[in-house]
UniProtKB/TrEMBL annotation:
Keywords: Cytoplasm, Methyltransferase, rRNA processing, S-adenosyl-L-methionine, Transferase. PANTHER family: RIBOSOMAL RNA SMALL SUBUNIT METHYLTRANSFERASE C. Transmembrane segments: none annotated. CDD domains: AdoMet_MTases (cd02440). InterPro entries: Mtase_sm_N (IPR013675), RsmC/RlmG (IPR046977), SAM-dependent_MTases_sf (IPR029063), Small_mtfrase_dom (IPR007848). The keyword ATP-binding does not apply. Residues 172-338 form the Methyltransferase small domain. Coiled coil: none annotated. It holds the Pfam family MTS_N. It comes from Marinobacterium stanieri. The keyword rRNA processing applies. This is 16S rRNA m(2)G 1207 methyltransferase. Residues 31-121 form the Methyltransferase small N-terminal domain.
Length: 346
């Protein structure tokens, strides 16, 4: 367990009074659930695991709207990867904490923790107490004063906004979603090659699963009114953006929260996937394996799964034993497209 995770566990053990834990992607626990600690997080897999362990956990895009002002004695937060998320939650903590309540921030120097702590101290109107845990890991405790100050700008975190566009359409997205303000080059490569990969023109007909949908780029460009579409993602911000974009395009689809497709049932004629390979702040090689196993389970025996991955990910090797037909379709030097058919019985 790393230093920050150890410190977070210690904070959770010692928490007293009414406590809110804002949890993002990084979580390693060594303690039993505490019913007196509220948990809000934006990653479905994290919340799913916490609920299974007995925690009072809520999955949302960090929706704090139902939390009354001045409700909490303590807010715990291991800072997220994206600045607008951190700024939004610092501002939220200022509103939710009682005067005299404490915001505890944890993070690495390279993640901007020292800057975030200074901004939080200004926002909460109080001095900060910082502790170096070792290496570049830090903890800070900031007490909310009666008179608070200016909070950091969060780019209207909660709101969807036009984020990027191409010749086909404009896409709405928001901070909190990985690559939220750009079209992923791997996904664009997949859409460009998809008719050739499948041997059919777009839009697709029949049942289609967008596994790890993000804001919906693959589904929006591959599907039409004749598609029976399901989109799924682990990130609450992604689900919100995808739902909005599909509605704007007039596409009827289910949008489901799931951890690498674990909540999806049935089988699909076409499966599209640009799997993530980062979990929290680190590369996670197991993620690709989980997406491949989900594809094996969810692909119709006569269907086709089309994956795009970074060139260094050995998808073809990982797919061995899961699919009978594994074909490298294209490689542009940065991304490669792999077509999978005939899933083997798990």
């Amino acid at each position: 367990m790393d230093l920050i995770s150890s410190e977070l566990n210690q904070c959770l053990r010692q928490a007293s009074g009414k406590t809110l834990w804002l949890v993002d992607e990084n979580i390693q626990l060594s303690l039993s659930a505490r019913q007196d600690i509220d948990v809000i997080g934006n990653r479905f897999d994290v919340i799913e695991r916490l609920e299974a362990s007995g925690w009072q956990a809520q999955f949302s895009d960090f929706d704090l709207s139902e939390c009354p002002n001045g409700e909490y004695d303590q807010v715990l937060y291991r800072v997220s990867k994206e600045k607008p998320v951190v700024h939004y939650l610092i501002s939220g903590a200022s509103r939710l904490l009682k005067p005299g309540g404490t915001l505890t921030l944890l993070g690495e120097k390279g993640e901007g923790i020292r800057t975030y702590v200074r901004k939080a101290a200004t926002c909460l109107g109080s001095e900060r107490q910082e502790q170096k845990l070792g290496g570049d890991s830090w903890r800070a405790d900031i007490v909310r004063a009666k008179q608070t100050g200016e909070c950091p700008p969060d780019q209207d975190y909660t709101e969807l906004r036009p984020a990027c566009e191409d010749t086909r359409q404009q896409y709405f997205s928001k901070p909190g979603l990985f690559g939220w303000n750009k079209i992923d080059r791997g996904s664009a490569f997949l859409i460009e090659q998809l008719p050739e990969m499948l041997g059919q023109s777009l839009p697709l007909t029949g049942s289609v699963l967008d596994l790890g949908c993000g804001f919906g780029y693959l589904a929006l460009n591959a599907c039409g009114a004749e598609s029976t579409l399901v989109c799924t993602d682990n990130n609450a911000a992604a689900l919100k953006a995808c739902r909005y974009n599909l509605d704007q395009a007039g596409l009827n689809a289910q949008v489901l929260a799931s951890d690498a497709g674990d909540q999806v049932s049935g089988t699909f004629q076409t499966l599209l996937c640009n799997p993530p390979f980062h979990s929290g702040f680190a590369v996670d090689g197991d993620l690709t394996d989980r997406f491949l196993k989900a594809a094996q389970r969810l692909l119709d025996r006569n269907g086709t799964a089309c994956f795009v991955v970074n060139q260094h990910i050995p998808l073809e090797r990982k797919a061995q034993g899961l699919f009978r037909d594994i074909q490298l379709h294209a490689d542009n030097g940065q991304f490669k497209l792999v077509r999978l058919r005939h899933p083997l019985t798990p």
